Amino acid sequence: MLYPEWLNPGDNAWQLTAATLVGLMSVPGLVVLYGGVMQKRWSVNSMMMTFVAFALVLVVWVLYGFEMAFGHPVSLGASDSFWHNLVGKPGSVLGHADLQGQAKIPNLGAAGVLDFPKSSLVYFQFVFAAITPILMLGSVLGRVNFKAWIPFVVAWVSLIYTVNAFLIWGGGWFAQQGAVDFSGGYVIHLSAGVSGFVAAWVIGPRLARDREIDAPNNLAMVALGAGLLWLGWNGFNGGDPYNAGADASAAVLNTNLAAAVAFLVWVGWDYATGRKPSLLGSVNGMIVGLVAITPGAGFLTGWGAILTGAIASSIVYVAYNYLALLRPFRKVDDTLGVVYTHGFAGLIGGLLVGVLADSSMQVVPGFSVAGGAHLLKWQALTALWVVVFCAVGTFVLLKLIGLVVPLRMSDEEMEMGDLAVHGHEVYPSDIPSLGFPAGIPPSPAPLSGVAGAESGS
User: Fold this and answer.
1) Kindly report the CA angle at 252 between 247 and 258, in degrees rounded to 5?
2) For position 443, what pLDDT does the model report?
3) 103 and which of 49, 118, 252, 404 could share a cystine (Cβ 3.0–4.6 Å)?
C-alpha cells in the first residue's frame, strides 16, 4: 500500500496545489505588482521587502507560529473562557511526525481531523500567514526602513496574526461562538488593512514629491501581478474546504464571479462619475471583489457572490474616491490604499456572510452556515475585535521597535531610493548601478556586424 489508510491522495494533491497558487500570489504576484506600481526608484525596495517577509514568515511559522495558530490552546482560564481559547501553545513542526503524520487541528475536535499530512496543512497555512504582512506593506511603501521591516514582520506575525488565526480558524473563542471566515476576510484582509493604516500613520508620509507625482514605472508588471492575484485566488479560496470536493469547486467559481462583477462595477462607476476607466482603478475593483468574497466563498450561492462583488465594489469605490477626502484619511499616506481595498472590502464581505450565507451550501456533508441575526451579530463582534486588536497591537509593536531602530528612512535615503538602500535600481541608468566599481566600465561590445558601426552613425 502506497499511502496510510487515512491519506486521500486527491485531497492532498489539491491542498499542495492550492498552497502553491497562494504562494504565487506573493512571489511573484505581489513582487511584480509592487515593483511595477511604485516609482522607478522604489521598485527594488518594494520587491525586496516582499521577498524578505515571505522568507521570514516561513521560518517563524515552522519554529513556533503554526502551533500558536492551529495547535492546542494555552490554558489561561476555564475551558470555555475567552482566555483559554485565545492562542495555541508555541512549538515546532519539523519532526518526522509533523512532516508525515496526519493533519489535525486539536481545538476543532473531529472536524479538525484531515485526510492529508500535517506538512501540507502547515505549508497551506504558511502562505496565508506570509501574504498578510506583504499586503500590509502596500500601505507603507516608499518610506519604511528596511531594517525596521524585518523585526516588525517577525513580531506582527508572532503576536497578532497567530492570535486572530487561532480565535477564528483554529477553534478559538470566536469560532466557538459561531463566527466564520471561510478563507481570510478578517484574519488576513481586515487585519492587513487596519494594521497597514496604523503603520502608515505612525511612520509618517512619503516625501511630498512622491505623493504629488505617484506614477507607476511599469503598468505591464502591474497587470501581470494582478493576473497572478486573480488566478492565484483559486487556491486561496478553493483550498479552504480542506478537500477536493464540491465546495472547493463552488468556492473557485464564486471567487471568479465576484471578482468579475466587482471589476465591471468599478469600470461602470468610473463612467458614471465622468472618469476614464484606468488600469489601476480597475485592478482595485478586481481586488475588492476577490477580498469581499473571501469570507464567504464556500457559504454563498452564485447569486450571493454576484451581490457581494457588486455591493463591495460600489461601497469601496465611494470610500476610495470620496471618503478619502475626510481629514482622518487625508492625513494618513496609505501608499496603495490598502485600508480600502483590503480593510473595507474584508469587513463588508464578512458582514455580508451574516446576511447571505445559504445553509444549502455544504462545505462537507452535514456542515453548512446559515445567515441570520445570530451569525451577523458574531460577524460584527469578530470584526470589531480584529480592528481594535490589530490597531492597538500594531501601534505598540511599532513604538517598541522604533526604540531600537528608526521606523522611517532618512530624508537622504528617501531622496535616492533603491540606490541608497540596496545599491542598485530596477532599470540601471549608470555604470556603478550595474555592479562595476566606479570608474571601471564594462568591456565594450564588439562592433563587427552592427549597421553603421564603421561610419560612426
Assistant:
1) 120
2) 43
3) 118
